[in-house]
Amino acid sequence: MTMDLKNGSTISDINATTAPINAKVDGDNSITNAATVTTIEPNGHRPSSTTAKLKSPPPEQESHIFRRSLIIASFWLLVLCLGLPIWWKTTTIYRANLPLDQMTDWADGKLCSPVFPIRIVIETPSLNEQETESLISITQHALDAMPDFPSHRLRLEANSQTALEDARLPHGHENNALVIRLTPGDVASFKPSSSPHAHLPIFEGTYPSNLKPTPETKSLQLATYIAAQLRQTFAEEQAIMSYFLATSTIASDQRPQVSHDRIDESLSKRMTRSMKYSGTYHLTFSLFTSGSTPSSWDIDSAIDRYMRPVLDMLKPIHNFTIDTQVQLYAIPGVQSQVLTKEDLSSFINAAEWPLSPSIGGAPTINFVIYMGNQTIGLDSGEETSQSWLVPQWGSVYLLSPPAATHVSAEFLKQPVLTFASHLLSLLGTPQSGSLPMRLSTLTRVRSVDMLLRASSSLGSLARLSLALPSISIPSRVADGVAKSIHHLELACTNLGSTESLKHARIAETEAERAFFEKSMVGQLYFPDEHKVAVYLPLLGPVGVPLLMGLLTEFKAWKMRKQQKAKVS
Predict the structure, then answer these.
(1) How would CATH label the architecture of 275-426?
(2) How much is the pLDDT for 170?
(3) CA–CA separation, 416 vs 304, rounded Å?
(4) In angstroms, rounded to a whole number, what is the distance separating the alpha carbons of residues 348 and 359?
(5) 364-403: b or e for each residue (b if 16 or more CB lie within 10 Å)?
(6) Region Disordered: start and end of each range (predicted)?
(7) Over the stretch 328-386, which tens digit does the pLDDT of each residue have?
(8) Domain-wise residue ranges, the chain
(9) Which fold has domain 117-242?
(10) Residue 48 to residue 406: CA distance in whole angstroms
């Protein structure tokens, strides 16, 4: 018997549909490998049900598992054994080995003490050998007892032909000797020799007859007087040494004990206005005029007559190249008749006064003669001057125009002599003493200046290398450091001579070149954040698939291991 339903289905139809499910029910009321899925038509008509069988996937073959593991391992081996070494080799920053401890010791002043051995030859034609030896012995004892004279080791010796010849040698520990000629006189005096052709620093001293040294009196009064005069002679040089040491990186416990009153304001200004040391300077002599005359000048003859002797004496320390020029209708920046200090800064207008640039990389010192009716007013308001020195630049001389169109060498005498004096000031030459004595002092102070500059550069490079471990240090930097240290050792060994200045200059040049190496300077502005920003877009697409594949294979291996454990 059948019963009609609203949707047209019959009981027999439902029974027919559920018959397969009932056939699958066993005695334990459990269902195996079968499920009933009932679906209702979207139109609300006759519901239907479908039976789907859920089968487990077949077990994976061992060969497939091995092949997949081998593929993953091959990718990782390729990355680890080939990719990483290539990346490490191509991105590793090369850092040459530097003697950091030695560089730091040079900067701290532990390897060289700037003490100058200076030999002083004493000529005593009116004394016998015994009296001379007694005078030298007592004077040497007085010099050694000076408490605030640490940068000089003065050594006295009697006059001999060998001593004078050795003093003229351009090498050795104790060249640039000072010669003292002692003769009897009415009063005691001690002054530089007036001989213009002396190639050595020579001082002429006189002593009254009551101070004549004898073995009985031990020459005490005359020896004390000579020691005091020598101390005064080297006082300015000692002050300059104190200035260089005070402004250097040498540790305070390594410096000679100097008095701070030696470093006065005037000395600091003099050192500031002098130019940085260079082995070669380019001198430019310029004639500027506001009109069409004068149009020529005999500058070459004027330089040869009045300036060449000074340049020749400076040859052991500096080399010079010279050029000249004439500029017509050159208008200065200030038109006042009397120039004040405020006007001097704008008097030279680079746009109106074209000056020759540096030639060959050497620093240029400008000497300008302006033909006009202007003068320079001094602080007093009444006196005027015709020249002024521009710190670290050169000198300007205001000269009234001559009647002729040609300027003769005699007319240029005073300007050129003024330029020679200003040149010595710009080079840092001391102001006291004769010119040979001043140049001898200039050699020593420049040696110390270069030695301290080179040592400071080495110390800065060592600190930079330690502070930035990621900075590149090319091999040429290590070579420059080695050369600099080698020449520093030679400069310290021959301290006080022209050879010391030569080696100190080379050491300073090599140290500066090593510190300002272009490839190193670029690394200073490449922080680690830039590296992360560069590598992340490259490593992300490559590293994520490799890592996920490795994790998936590890999970599958772990699951297979657990299944084997259950079966066993």
Answers:
(1) 3-Layer(aba) Sandwich (3.40)
(2) 39
(3) 10
(4) 21
(5) bbbbbbbbbebbbbeeeeeeeebbbbbeebbbbbbbebee
(6) 40-60
(7) 888 787 877 788 777 777 777 766 677 766 666 789 999 999 887 777 776 655 555 78
(8) 11-50, 117-242, 275-426
(9) Rossmann fold (3.40.50)
(10) 127
